[in-house]
Amino acid sequence: MSSSRLGLGARELLSVRTTGLTRTTRRPANWQGLVQRNSLPKASPFSTSQCMARSPISRSALDQAHGRLAASPAPKLEMSRRMQQNIGEITAEAVSLILPGTFVLPRPSQFPKPAVEKVKLLYNWSLIKFQEILTNTTLKIMSKPSIFKRALFKPKRSALIPTAKGLHRAMAEALAAGDKNTIGRICSRKLGSSLLGSIDARPRGRRYGWELVKYTNKLLYPSIKSHRISPLGREKNAPIVRQAVVAISSKQRRVEYDAKGQVVPGSEKEIDVVENVAIACVVDARTWVQGEWRLVGTIHHTTLHAWEEEKELLKVMMQSS
């Protein structure tokens, strides 16, 4: 889904038209750009897919908001409260989106055929991977109370795969069952909105079933495709978003039931699918305590053409900032 979709290959499984995630412009962690999604189109009855359009929220928006509050005659306590509300809104929006610099390397079978393009794709991926490791290491060092003390922030990569698998399965089961409470609890704001819309759009009396048959291709999957940690602002204690993309290969079964509880003929299907599942959480830069993980959705692998376009957009945005 744009920022929110269960299953690129699960279009057939979910029996609705799905669209790929329109990836946000990637910016370095210290450039702090986010992307805001436009209003959602009408949802399909069992849809986990909505389009995301590019409309960047620049850093200047935060500066302008801070300036308006600073000029206000309200007491400092009120100013602090209002700033916290603004930060809360921005944080909720941030964990609904794919962070700048997210590069999902495709499977070998999906690589471009020309050797030159293969080399370019791998070169860009290696640069992003280096930046990713450097940024994550820098933030870990920044969490040290002093040079001789241990870092307070210890991002455990080992927890990323089981977390992504758990959220992915819980969301699919909740969507099939129409469990709005679970969707609201485990999904990001944008993903949750689109999934709730798809539940409300279902025909009266129609029920759905979803089952994870098994995980497949266990020699290659699941695997961590991206792990980014990025501050949301230039301030010392600006909130930090931690995001991971985990590739999961599985066989899934889906079925529909009519108002009488009978299986709708032809609705029971099984599909093998590889999904790049994105999850995100917020880290408090003052205490370095990590919040709960949220499911952002699934995204397409990165293509060379799309990446080149984003680099051009990035240049324009950096020049105008």
Automatic annotation (TrEMBL):
GO terms for cellular component: mitochondrion. The keyword Transit peptide applies. Keywords: Mitochondrion, Transit peptide. The keyword Mitochondrion applies. SUPFAM superfamilies: NTF2-like (SSF54427). InterPro entries: mtLSU_mL45, NTF2-like_dom_sf. It is found in: Mitochondrion. This is Tim44-like domain-containing protein. The lineage of its organism: Eukaryota, Fungi, Dikarya, Ascomycota, Pezizomycotina.
